[in-house]
């Protein structure tokens, strides 16, 4: 799948109510995960907007929480994964690697 085909996944156009319906999470739970810096919606006129990628992320968070993983550990894991992606991107750019 190319970036162009995948780009819809990252557009922040979904309201919190729809995200709640899609995930089965309450709006309060979704806002809590935002407070814990696990999810980062855009805001337009005070209204939160989410992407399909955010919905997937929320489902992963919910599954980990059901397994008893604390939000602190989830955030640490997400930070580690982000660092690894950034390092890989920097290395690819340095060595001019294009997948």
TrEMBL record:
Protein name, per record: Transcriptional regulator TnrA
Domain HTH merR-type: 13-80
GO molecular function: DNA binding; DNA-binding transcription factor activity
PROSITE patterns per the UniProt record, alphabetical: HTH_MERR_2 (PS50937)
Protein species of origin: Parageobacillus caldoxylosilyticus NBRC 107762
Keywords in alphabetical order: DNA-binding, Repressor, Transcription, Transcription regulation
Gene3D superfamilies, A to Z: 1.10.1660.10
